[in-house]
Amino acid sequence: MTNVRSADYAWITVDDPYLLDEGFCLSVFSPATVDDVLAGLPAVTESSTGDLGALCDLAWDNGRDLIGGVLQVGESVVLYEPYGYLDDDAKQSLSTGRVAVSVDGNLAASHFRFYRDGASVTMFEHMFADSRQGNDPDAVLPLMEQVGGFDLDRGPEDDPALDANYLASSFALCEAITGARLTYRLMSESQFLICRFA
Predict the structure, then answer these.
(1) Which residues of 68-84 are buried (b: 16+ CB within 10 A; e: fewer)?
(2) I need a labelling partner for 155 at 20 to 30 A (CA). Which of 4, 55, 67, 186 fits?
(3) Do you find a cis peptide bond into 17, omega within 30 degrees of 0?
(4) Does the pLDDT at position 111 exceed 60?
(5) How far is it, in rounded angstroms, from Cα 154 to Cα 188?
(6) What is the number of other CB atoms lying within 10 angstroms of the CB of residue 157?
(7) Global model pTM greater than 0.85
């Protein structure tokens, strides 16, 4: 676990035509290899390599097809789905023997999910981090406090300025749990293994 703060992910607010657009799901599995992750996902029917732009273009051009990009980052594997169609059960199953964190977002709602050893540990909607669910809802509360930016005590004195930090805070919390540092350059310039799944 790393000493990371929400401010380290301020790049999340960059206006980029690909990253974190209308809907996405980013999952991190650690420790894992690309082969480990692919073995736990639906069968790959087609694959290529390309950057995030190529990945998103393929997804946008193919409607509701299940398309994702897989990337090795140190001892972790990142799975980026432009639309986030892969169900949560697969990610929970992939956490057996490791941790898995899933951060998703769309125009209606955004969620953080933390799995460990095949079980759901903590999950919450970014804007309502004080309403956590899972087998151990408070398991990452100290890390949430360390990362900052979460509204952990909603009440009449809520600070609306916190709203802009929720997604950055969730990405920082993902790093705190998995150890995988995700930067704008890493996400925008890396060559993903782009997969179409059955």
Answers:
(1) bbbbbbeebbbbbbbbb
(2) 4
(3) no
(4) yes
(5) 35
(6) 6
(7) yes
Fill in the amino acid letter for 77: V
**Cα dihedral value 164, 135, 86, 77, nearest 10:** 80
Pairwise CA distance, residues 83 & 80, whole Å: 9
Positive or negative, the CA dihedral 70, 30, 123, 151 is negative
CB contact at 8 A, 165 and 13: no
Task: Please enumerate in sequence order all residues whose Cβ is within 8 A of that of 142, keeping only pairs 6 or more positions apart, or say none.
Answer: none
CA separation for the pair 17, 51 (Å, rounded): 13
Do 79 and 68 touch, CB atoms closer than 8 A? yes
| DSSP of 140-184 | THHHHHHH-----S-STT--GGGGGGHHHHHHHHHHHHH-----H
| pLDDT at residue 161, rounded to an integer | 46
Per DSSP, 133 falls in state B
Residue 179, pLDDT above cutoff 50: yes
Q: Which helix (H) or strand (E) holds 195?
A: strand 192-197
